[in-house]
Amino acid sequence: MTENEISKIFLDIAFKVHKTLGSGLFESVYENIVCYELDKQNIPYDIQKTVPIEYDGRKFDNAFRADIIIDNKVIIELKSVEKLNDLHKKQLLTYLKLTGLRLGLLINFNEILLKNGIVRIVNNL
Questions:
Q1: How many domains does the chain have?
Q2: Nearest Cα residue to 114 out of 70, 68, 80
Q3: d(CA 37, CA 33)
Q4: Distance CA 112, CA 86 (A)
Q5: CATH number of the domain that 20 lies in?
Q6: What is the pLDDT along the chain (125 residues), one digit of tens a residue?
Q7: Taking the model in full, what pTM does it have?
Q8: Which residues contact residue 117 at a Cβ distance below 8 angstroms, ignoring those fewer than 6 apart?
Q9: Range of the domain at 78
């Protein structure tokens, strides 16, 4: 699957989950439910994946954790916050640059209309 195909599938899942559960739950609840939906569709993913980075010739094994990485192609960062801000967007772009991945989705489930809480971040896509 391409990054865009993965993105479409994940967004369909996110809309379904948000429509069913609504907003206001903890991020971990949404994370578990969307992963359940990915499992139902046999889509490979890693949850809370520890990602190493290299700095100054040294490898740091536990640099950061990505919420979900789908098929080693798309990073999903889930939030349940009052409002997304620029720091959330910059964080995801940094994750993309450090991993070499090209597409990330930032999803804030704490929106009345989920479409208002979706940000697509690209890195040389």
A1: 1
A2: 80
A3: 6
A4: 20
A5: 3.40.960
A6: 999 999 999 999 999 999 999 999 999 999 999 999 999 999 999 999 998 888 999 999 888 899 999 999 999 999 999 999 999 999 999 999 999 999 999 999 999 999 999 999 999 86
A7: 0.93
A8: 79, 84, 107, 108, 109, 110, 111
A9: 3-122
